[in-house]
Design goal:
The protein is α/β, with parallel strands linked by helices and 261 residues long. Helices cover 50% and strands 11% of the residues. The chain starts with 11 loop residues before the first strand and ends in a 5-residue tail after the last helix.
C-alpha cells in the first residue's frame, strides 16, 4: 500500500483581546497562517476557553477589562496549563515589556504589528520559523518593528485622513481586509469618542489612558494616522482645549467618510 503524504496538523491558538478592531485584525491574520483560532475578550472567558480545549499557543492582551494578561497567565499556570504564551500591547516602554516577560510570556509584540511580522513571531513560537529561535522568556519587542506612525507636535495637518500605505502594510496588501476593518473601526468610533469625553469630564486619567491606549493600536491597523496623533495628544501633560478640539475634529472627519463612495 502506498504511503499517504504527511499532512501537518493545523496549529490551534487562543486569542485573548477585548478591543474589537485589534481582535478582528489578529484573528484574520492568525487564521491566514493558517491556524485555527479560539477567541476570548476577557480573563473569565479566556479561562473557560483554555479549559475546554488544547492549544498550541496563546496570544494574550496585556490589559483586559477584568484583569491583566499577566494575572491571566498566572492563573492558567496555577491550573497546570503550560501552553506557550505571547503577550501583545500598545505600550512601548521597556518597563512594561520586562514585566510581561517576568510574568512568564515567551515574548512581547508591540501593537500595531503587521501580518508578516505577526506570522514570523507565531511561527517562531511554534518552532516553525526560519528566523533566529527565541530563547525562553526572550523579548521580541525590539526585534519586531511597528509601522511608522510619527506623533508630530501638531496633529491637525494637511494629509489624507486614511494612510493607505500603513494599512495595506499591516494587512499584507489585502485591500478587502482594510475596507472591512475600517468599516468596523468607524462603527466603534462614536462609542470610543464618547468614552474619551466621559473620562476627560470626570478627570479620570487612568480611564483616559486605557481608552487611548486601545485606540492608538486600532488607528495603526487601519491607517488612521491623523486620529492616532490627535488621540495621543490628549494624554500629554500639556494637553488643553486645543487638543480636545483637534481630536473632536478628526473624529468628525473620519465619520463623514462613511457616507462617501
Amino acid at each position: 500500500m502506498e504511503d499517504l503524504p504527511f499532512t501537518p496538523r493545523m496549529p490551534r491558538l487562543m486569542l485573548v483581546e477585548d478591543d474589537p478592531i485589534t481582535s478582528a485584525f489578529l484573528l484574520t491574520a492568525a487564521q491566514a497562517l493558517p491556524a485555527s483560532v479560539d477567541c476570548a475578550d476577557s480573563v473569565a472567558t479566556a479561562l473557560s476557553v483554555a479549559d475546554s480545549d488544547i492549544h498550541d499557543l496563546w496570544l494574550i492582551d496585556a490589559n483586559l477589562p477584568d484583569g491583566s494578561g499577566a494575572s491571566l497567565l498566572r492563573t492558567l499556570r496555577q491550573r497546570n496549563l503550560w501552553t506557550p504564551a505571547l503577550a501583545h500591547t500598545a505600550a512601548t516602554d521597556d518597563a512594561t515589556h520586562r514585566a510581561l516577560i517576568e510574568a512568564g510570556f515567551l515574548a512581547v509584540m508591540i501593537k500595531p504589528i503587521d501580518v508578516a511580522s505577526l506570522h514570523a513571531v507565531i511561527r517562531n513560537a511554534l518552532g516553525l520559523a526560519s528566523m533566529a529561535p527565541m530563547q525562553p522568556h526572550d523579548s521580541i519587542a525590539n526585534r519586531i518593528a511597528e509601522p511608522a506612525l510619527v506623533a508630530e507636535p501638531v496633529p491637525c495637518r494637511d494629509e489624507a485622513l486614511w494612510n493607505d500605505e500603513i494599512a495595506l502594510t499591516a494587512l499584507n496588501g489585502q485591500q478587502d481586509h482594510v475596507d472591512a476593518l475600517r468599516e468596523l473601526f468607524l462603527d466603534e468610533l462614536p462609542q470610543v469618542h464618547g468614552s474619551i469625553i466621559h473620562a476627560l469630564q470626570a478627570h479620570d486619567m487612568d480611564a483616559l489612558s486605557s481608552v487611548v491606549h486601545k485606540l492608538r493600536a486600532s488607528c495603526g491597523f487601519v491607517g488612521a494616522s491623523r486620529l492616532l496623533v490627535a488621540a495621543s495628544q490628549l494624554t500629554s501633560q500639556s494637553a488643553g482645549s486645543d487638543a480636545l478640539s483637534c481630536f473632536d475634529s478628526e473624529v468628525a472627519r473620519l465619520l463623514l467618510t462613511r457616507d462617501k463612495p
